[in-house]
Design brief:
By secondary structure, the protein is of the alpha/beta class. The chain has 11 helices and 10 strands. It has one domain: TIM Barrel. It is about 35% helix and about 15% strand. Helix 1 runs parallel beside helix 10 and helix 5 runs parallel beside helix 6.
Length: about 325
Amino acid sequence: MKYRKLGNSGLKVSEIGLGSWLTYGTATEAQTAQECIHKAYELGINFFDSANAYNNGEAEKVMGDALKAYTRNSYVLATKVFFPMGKGPNDRGLSRKHIMEQCEASLKRLGTDYIDLYQCHRFDSDTPVEETLRALDDLTAQGKVLYTGISEWTAVQIKDAAATGNRLGLRPLISNQPIYNMFERYIEQDVIQACEQEGLGQVVFSPLAQGVLTGKYKPGQAIPSDSRAANDKTNGVINSYLREDVLQVAAKLEQLASSIGASLSQFALAWVLRQPNVSSAIIGSSRPGQVEENVKAIDIELTDELLAQTEAILAEVKHFAPMR
């Protein structure tokens, strides 16, 4: 495994991370999820990401149980706060009340005394940024959180938060967790630049575009019955990728990957990791073999010629409007 610093911090995370969205505690049985986590750790992955909202806390429990097999200082455990965890008006968002209460709840579910990286799952327009940042800073001062980050904030929101934190003398945010893959590249416009200026590194999710960049979905063919698209009816995100032009492009990319002896998923992950501001690409996994295959992406070097060929193929998708 290879490791990169997370933003301007001294924290080092594996180039491939393991996440638990739409898998652990839901579609994947607990035993299989534990096998995936153990395989990831065995292969050198030290970055494990979850969120309180993933299956209403069940994903945190599964991940916490699996990681108990290892010494606590040997891995980096990340989780998030923002989405509703109850029906009350204060059971959501980034208010001080919700952050403090949900941090305690996540610690209990994860079975740990501290969270390495605590992230704001989205931006909360109902709460002053100062209130959110002070709450995060207090959790860090208490030792319950070591580092803090955000997810899917705009460049303007990132710059504003950094300026507010600097003015108040608070500990800086060190990470941003956006969606980033060959089809969803909005962070290249201004988010990466803002993060580089403010010392944040990217820990990106959905680098394989919900499985479309694994080659399992073929143009002109029925959706495989054992796939996520066929079995998770609540996941509307994947439908935005299941267009004929997108699948045609994925098929061409698979051929390009094959020309260098790589799978499409390995090629797609290497493409994401070509960005120096990306600290880790977070994969999901429903079986240990997927983890084993995907970590090989760290050894793939993409030449300028390959990148140019990739861009030419991706240009065939004229407009991509994701469902978020």
